[in-house]
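look at this fold:
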Amino acid sequence: MTSGSPYSDSLILGIESSCDDTSAAVIHGNKILANVTAGQEVHRHYGGVVPELASRAHQKHVVPVIDRALKLAEVKPEQLDAIAYTRGPGLLGSLLVGSSFAKAMAQALHLPAYPIHHMRAHILAHFILQEGVEPPQFPFLCLTVSGGHTQLVIVHGPNEMELIGETLDDAAGEAFDKAAKLLGLPYPGGPLIDRYAQGADASAFRLPRPKVDGYNWSFSGLKTAFRNLVEKERRANPHFVETQLPKLCASLQDAIVDMLMQRLVEAASAKKIDRIALAGGVSANSGLRRALEQEAQKRSWQTHVLPLEYCTDNGAMIAMAGYFAHQSGANTSLSDSAKARWLME
C-alpha cells in the first residue's frame, strides 16, 4: 500500500450481498479486522439460488452480520471513515438489500458510501494484507472465475482494469453447478465435483473443449455434451452415475480447467505478462490451482492465489476495493442504484 497516504489508516466497512451470501468486513488500511459471512442453506432444497428467497434472507442477516463484524473488529459505527457496498453485478433483489442498508447507514453517519463492482473487488482481494505474502505488482493478468462470470483482465492499477476476454454464455462455475445437479449432487455442486475428482481418471470420458474467437470462452457446448453423455449411458445402465461418479467428475473438471488454462496461456504469451493471479469462487478448485502451478513452473510465471476465505464472495474484498476508492478520492452518491448487469468499465 502507498505509505504516507492520508487514508492509510482509514476504517472502512465493506458490505457484500450480490448473491446468496450476506457478508460484512472491517478493514484498517489494508488489514482485515473482521470478516463475517452468513450463508443461506435454504437454496439446497431447490438445487440452486432462488432470487426471492435470497433477498429475504439478506434482509434477515444484514443487521446481525454487520453488527458482528463491527464488534469483532472492536470498532464503533461512528469511528468508521467510509462504507463500501456491492452495487453489482448480481441478483437485483439481493443487491438492493445491501446497497440500501449501506447508503442509509452512510447517510445517518455522514460518511461517504462507495459503490463497488463485484468482479473488480474479487481481483483487489489480492491486496488484503497477508503475512509473508507480497501482492502482485502492476500490470498483472487475472483469471477471474465464479458462478456468474469468467473473465481475463489485465490489471494496470487498482482503478484501471482492461477486460480482454470473457465467457459468451455460461460461466465456468455455472457449468460445474449444473453438471453437479445432473449428477444428483446437492447445491453448491462445484466443490463436490472437485472432491469426487480427486485421484480419479480424468481421461475416462472424453469431452469437447469448444473454442471461440479471441480470449473468450463458451461453456454451453461442453455442458450439453456432458448432459448427452450422462443421459445416453443412463439409458443403457440406470446405475451409471453411481458407479462412475469419480471419473465423471474428474473428466468434467479436467475439460473446464483445460479450457481456462488454454486461454490464460495464450493471453499471457501474447501480452507478455508473467505475473498471473486467480480470483473468484472457482479459484478455490484444486484442479485449477494445480494446473496453474504446473504452467507457472513451465513458463516461469509469478503466481498469486488467494486463501480460500477470500475466493468466495466476502465482505473483505468489498472493503479492500473501498479502501482504494477512498484513497483515490472517488466520487460517491447516495442516488446510485443497484445494477444486476454492470459491465467492467
In short: The first helix runs from residue 51 to 73. The first strand starts at residue 11 and ends at 16.
